[in-house]
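Suppose you are handed a protein chain with no further information: no name, no annotation, nothing but its sequence. What can you learn? This example shows the usual starting point.
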Amino acid sequence: MKNDDPWYYTKNIVTVGTMDIATAFICTNYNKYSVNALAGAVESTPATQNAHLYFITEHSPVKILEALTELQRSHEMLLIGFSFATTNAVAVYELLSMLKADLAGGRALYIAGGPHASGDPSGALAMGFDITVIGEGEETFPELINALTDDLDWRAIRGIAYHDGESVVTTGRRRPVDLNRFAPFSPSHERLSPIEVSRGCPHACRFCQTSFLFGARMRHRALDEVLGYISLSKVKGTKDFRFISPNALAYGSEDGISVNLEAIEGLLRGASAIVGTDHLFFGSFPSEVRPEAVSPEAIELITRFTATRQIVIGAQTGSQRMLDSLHREHNVEDVDRAIECILAAGLEVCVDFIFGLPGETNDDRLHSIAMMDSLAARGAKIHSHTFIPLPGTPLAKEDVGVIDKELAAYLSRLANKGLQFGQWKKQQRLAREASHFLLHLHHPLI
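A reasonable first move is to predict its three-dimensional structure. Written in structure tokens, the prediction is:
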């Protein structure tokens, strides 16, 4: 139940185990979905369903410190959880350093999770974290809370890394979790989110962490589970309903590549029956669709059962050579066919592009510009990104992408016409800062 304090909690919590432990999540705009899912997993696990969970929603470091200090006064031990991406590493390090220096008294453990910590667990420990959760946390994190609460040896838990003296110990990867075992968000703390319907990806694009962190086999949440949580979320006040998936049109697909129209229709028909078509969205943020998955039949289902007005397509580049190099497993023609199909249905389309890709030549850039010219002429919007080398991917050691003045001017002209948007400038700056910071973190003498 929410209140006016910088953290909020469920009232009348029952103490569990032998030690009074509070778990505090540092909540931000970029990690809210993962934090909500992790809290849902804690609630879904019998041993931790009554655990003390707190959500620090303040953005000011001083306010965060004040909230954690207050928690220390009322609990024997404090677990402080961070979930973050590579571009957030510098800000997280600065906050972590401040907390470790100024959070006086009591016992505290700092736990890192999320895509950056999973891809670079030793680096997260070098930042000052006590424990890194590697990969999916739905099983690992509740086990950590339970072990610490009952004063058990948490070092035996699989899926973590920690320091043993000067050495980094990793306890091995866990098997992919069954999504149906865990709530997709936290009902009792009213931390509601779009429902994750699929996880994992069979395509293993070389720049993307999804396949390498969550597996190449796509897993799906069962239809009855999805519809049950939609109903619950509606009862708790959610108005608009969206889904989380690497590729929305892969829902229910056995191989994660083919399109299962029957499963998609079942999902959209069932969801729209609960919330109405005016409040249901599919194939747009926080999901997208792969271009080769688009068909008139799939788009017809979206227009019939949802209020979706814009479909998000991942093209990434207009160069077939770069598509092959990135292991995208679709071709340039797939993008064009998808755009035509979506526009023919009267929908808008937003197309993702990544600039500054490793190995990209001027000829590759010209192919991308030619594709963007064609898309923009038909009314499509370009969503621009700068390449960021992400830990745990085949391109992790490549240089940060750079957008030259000529391309920047071109993107600016598109933006002035309302045909381009995105935070590529901010991404480029944050990626440079993170790359410099991480280089010195791993090689302090450089």
